[in-house]
Amino acid sequence: MSPDTHAILQSHGLTQLAVLQQNKTKLIIVAQDKEKNKFVVKVFTTVNRFLLKEIDFLEMVSGTHFRYLLFPKLESKGENYFITRYVDREQHTRDSILARQWTTENYRLFVRGITEFQEIRRHKKYFTFTERIKGFFFPALMVMKNYGWIAGKLSMTQKWTLFRLAIFNLAGSFFWKKVLVHYDFQTTNYAFAVPGRQEEQKMSVLDMETGSYKGDAWYDLLYYCSIPVVSLYDWTFQKELFREFIKIANPGGRGYLLVAHVRSVLLAVQLIRYSNFKNDASRQEIYFRNIGDILLNTSKFNAWFIEMRA
Known about the structure:
single chain; alpha+beta; five-stranded antiparallel β-sheet; three-stranded mixed β-sheet; 12 helices; 47% helix; globular
């Protein structure tokens, strides 16, 4: 623990319990006070936009009632840190989320939480012009960014299909409704909160350092669904979330346009996952099959989409 972090904890009467994350830019720890109340302390090495962005968001939502979402309560802030109440929540990995026993109410709550999150109006003052443009075209930009990782394994027909989908998403971005997007809905950032005796269950949202301003309504859902390393044909809970999202959300597009919209965003997400496993050939191969065998094959993707909606 750095002297700076130790001084922060001491000034607030807190004792460190565990380190949740530590890298060159920040340290996140769980601490408790004398009454055994738990808190999360996030300390940045320097004052930056990400710190200010997250504090601004937490202050913005502090006075708002959410039916399906639970954000950590901001308790204190300083020049390079802030402290929030600890939220008791389910803990899952990319593997354990597959073994979770989902219920119909779980699917409904999960998707309702996403749609409620999308409706939050976020200030854009902490987002640069580049971040605003990036959010507007994010899926298409991610396809172009990660294309190099997979190009050598694709046929000319597959490459043409990939570029056609990227162009479709790029053009569609001017017409689809833009919503608040988290961009990093990992199992650690979007999870079922453990309710108290008198409380209803809600979805807990963490890590609001969002790197881009607004974006595609499908992105967060498909990003989360792609966390488990499985074939698209083996989607289980993801299939139910997909159906629920189409049923209660207004994700943009109908008929062919909806199919192509989903396909273009899912392609971006699967390419991101593929590039993340560049040192794990077996897992990377699963994402490659999803991309090459399904997403870049029109007839197979259409059949998959119909099955998802059935």
